[in-house]
């Protein structure tokens, strides 16, 4: 039996936090199908590429980013998900601090959008985005994955605002500070930074070399 013709693609859910809101990078498609509609960045896997190589290539092409947190999310393979033919998409999500973004794409347009209020998306990208949001919010509760969205130095108020932006709910300041500091994953930089009219806050950095998973809940 002749094997069926199936294309393999990677799609990227690229998150950042800007102006206190969790945002996702979307591109406006410049070619059919769905020309003029917003979509997640991505593309077809080349013949000699691994899936992660393809995902990192697309990430660099669409954002100019290379050294960011990237994790495989899920595989989407509904037969009718792409009108051009049978396409299986392996989705990844990436996390980046906003200051590091250098958007670059050959699409008609690229822009950040609030992740919880994205416009109508092409293909099945609304489903992929929803899955990415669910994964990020779940991992935020038991791992340090959220730290990938921070600059190298940050204050506890900035860290709390990051968690609140992703979870879309307020957190008790005293309990959050006590729990975060008890995990031993922060180190003081011995400096302070002013926050508007508030007293200067202590600067911290991430004391662990990579994303760490904890027993129990962080928040």
Descriptive tags:
alpha+beta, Nucleoside Triphosphate Pyrophosphohydrolase, Arc Repressor Mutant, subunit A, 7-stranded mixed β-sheet, 4 helices, 24% helix, 10 strands, 219 residues, single chain
Structure description:
By secondary structure, the protein is α+β, with helices and mostly antiparallel strands. The chain folds into 2 domains: 7-141, Nucleoside Triphosphate Pyrophosphohydrolase (Alpha-Beta Complex), CATH 3.90.79.10; 147-206, Arc Repressor Mutant, subunit A (Orthogonal Bundle), CATH 1.10.10. It is 24% helix and 32% strand. It is built from 4 helices and 10 strands. The protein has helices at residues 51-63, 125-142, 156-167, 173-182, and strands at 7-18, 21-28, 38-39, 42-44, 69-76, 87-95, 109-114, 154-155, 186-195, 198-206. The strands form 2 sheets. Strands 1, 2, 3, 4, 5, 6 and 7 form a 7-stranded mixed β-sheet that branches. It has a 3-stranded antiparallel β-sheet with strand order 8-10-9. The termini are far apart. 28% of the residues are buried.
Mean pLDDT: 89
Largest β sheet strand count, sense and barrel closure: 7 strands, mixed
Structural class, by secondary structure, is alpha+beta
Stretches where pLDDT falls below 50 for ≥5 residues? none
Number of E-state strands: 10
* Count of spatially separate domains: 2
User: What is the level-2 CATH architecture name of the largest domain?
Assistant: Alpha-Beta Complex
Order of helices and strands: EEEEHEEEHEHHEE
CATH topology-level fold name of the largest domain: Nucleoside Triphosphate Pyrophosphohydrolase
């Amino acid at each position: 039996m002749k094997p069926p013709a199936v294309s393999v693609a990677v799609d990227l859910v690229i998150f950042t936090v800007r102006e206190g809101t969790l945002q996702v990078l979307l591109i406006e498609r410049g070619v059919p199908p769905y020309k003029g509609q917003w979509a997640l960045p991505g593309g077809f896997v080349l013949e000699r590429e691994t899936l992660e190589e393809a995902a990192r290539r697309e990430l660099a092409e669409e954002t100019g980013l290379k050294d960011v947190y990237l994790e495989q999310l899920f595989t989407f393979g509904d037969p009718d998900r792409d009108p051009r033919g049978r396409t299986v998409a392996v989705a990844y999500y990436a996390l980046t601090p906003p200051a590091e973004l250098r958007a670059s794409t050959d699409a008609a347009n690229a822009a950040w959008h609030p992740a919880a209020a994205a416009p109508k998306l092409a293909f099945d990208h609304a489903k992929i985005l929803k899955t990415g949001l669910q994964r990020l919010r779940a991992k935020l509760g038991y791992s340090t994955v959220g730290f990938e969205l921070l600059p190298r130095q940050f204050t506890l108020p900035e860290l709390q605002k990051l968690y609140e932006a992703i979870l879309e709910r307020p957190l008790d300041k005293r309990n959050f500070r006590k729990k975060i500091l008890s995990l031993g994953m922060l180190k003081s930089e011995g400096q302070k930074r002013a926050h508007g009219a508030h007293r200067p806050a202590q600067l911290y950095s991430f004391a662990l070399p990579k994303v760490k998973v904890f027993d129990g809940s962080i928040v």
